[in-house]
Amino acid sequence: MIKKPNSIPKPKGKLGVLIPGMGAVATTFMAGVIAVRKGLSQPIGSLTEMGTIRVGKRTDNNKPKIKDFIPLAKLNDIAFGGWDIFPEDMYDAAVHADVLEKDLLNKIKRDLKKIKPMKAVFDNKYVTRLDGKHVKKGKTKMALAKAVMKDIENFKKENKCTRLVMIWCGSTEIYLKESKVHKTVKALEEGLKNNDPNIPPSMIYAYAAIKMGIPYANGAPNLSCDVPALIQLAKETQAPIAGKDFKTGQTFMKTVLAPAFKARAIGVEGWFSTNILGNRDGAVLDDPDSFKSKEVSKLGVLEQIFEPEINKELYGDMYHKVRINYYPPRGDNKEGWDNIDIRGWLNYKMQIKVDFLCRDSILAAPLCLDLVIFLDLAKRVGMSGIQEWLSFYWKSPQAKKGLTPQHDLFKQLEKLENTLRHLKGESLINHLGLDYYEED
Prior knowledge:
CATH superfamily of the largest domain: NAD(P)-binding Rossmann-like Domain
Number of domains: 2
CATH architecture of the largest domain: 3-Layer(aba) Sandwich
Structural class: alpha/beta
Largest sheet: 7 strands, parallel
Strand order of the largest sheet: 3-2-1-4-5-6-11
Strand content: 15-25%
């Protein structure tokens, strides 16, 4: 149960947003925030900027914007920084990513040029399809973690930030299972000192942030902060954490469609999904070990929503397959095809075809914004550890031990909104209040 604070501290001063991995998603996020600040465009896709929330009874007709309902950090108060294996500034990185139009980038060129990446913690063994020279050196992984902490301290001082949030926008690492080194804080810290191979770069960043009490979000399917040691450390240092893997394209559509099929008791025999993607993320996922991380993240969604162990007649024998294909001509414009074989009344077979042509980084950028804004709120009100109320944003949401994560998009949104209502001392909405049955 989330305790309701006596009051919500206002977001005073600057919020520093630190990003490991300053490629297509990160540059689109940063450029977008700067463009919106200058009045050049709109923050479409961001709940914290454009979303509304119902407060009170339906008859009250009170639906303020979320940012007017609860005190959130403002875009003008955000300062950006981060790390990357390539040294180019954020203007050059955004041009190279080829997501945003050159005309827009040129209007914010001066601001983007000022943002230069710090040397990254990187090891080609964990992301085999990438290599860069703008990389930190250290005898141990603990030394690298301390170097990241020093970077964080310097960034906070130089940018005069009062608060910080870290969000991983780096590549998908090879698939790793939870092991002995991840069980306790002590074991993890010993592993960092001894260069344990089960500690990838993303976990080094997560450790550095969480050790300092800084909120941390994991935008990739990497283990990162999703291990007992870092969950425990987050409670000790009062750091909110959330992850994993931004829910942007094909999985986003699954969490919309699957609840509808289940709600109408429509059977599903098979769900075949394939993607083509040509950006750096596509190149990384062309490696089978990295794809394994993404595959595991994507496959769990339908099983949780359909609950085949309970609904055997409808989903007990469903076949689910996911593929990702690297196709350079598309760049950041990915395409997801879904073939869904369904069964209706009297077992009559039908099919649904979905062709989702979307822009990966355009969909991910507003999620980054919402996550850093909401994690900052969580930190200010004293929420720590796993933030299940932010499951709305993830393909594979973190959940407390023994609990199955919720994947239904609409249930996730209800949880998010009710958390905000609870923090403000407003009544929760479950659509079963007296006003549902009686005239107000």
